[in-house]
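Methods — Computational structure assignment.
A single polypeptide chain was analysed. Its primary sequence is given first, followed by the predicted tertiary structure written as structure tokens.
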Amino acid sequence: MRLSLKVLITLSLALSFGENALIAQAAPKTDARSMTTEFVCKTTVPALPAGTKEASLWIPAPSDSEWQKVESLVVEGAPDYKINQENRYKNRMVYVHLDATQTPLTVTVRYVVNRKEMRVLGDATRHPQKESTKFLKMNLMGEKSLPIGGAFPCYLCKCDGRKNNDT
């Protein structure tokens, strides 16, 4: 009697796991969800200080990737602009060069982006592509141009006239 009870329990468990595996395999895969969002970046340049002849603006702009598609990008208010891509990280930006007579000025960048759902524990096909070792090293190494050791607040003080203890 004991042996047959063990066999019955084992057989019951095996069948229930097998049934769940068949159900999981038969379930249709659903497409990734997506979200469409409009972003607005508004930049205002006041009249330039006396003696300043020109100013340059770099306003972030999105890029297409396997996880997002830029559906539209519109620049308003800029007399002349270029959409550039920097070499190191491949980030795109709207570049506007102004002379003193063109300020004050407000530049608005509007873009619509459709982003796909990203799952951390999803299907292998839905994970981002693995980055190259060179790309990872470039993005994980320290940035030499950032101030360290509490120096950043001092730079802020110099820029906007605050005293060291003002926040």
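Note: Helices lie at 2-26, 133-140, 151-160.
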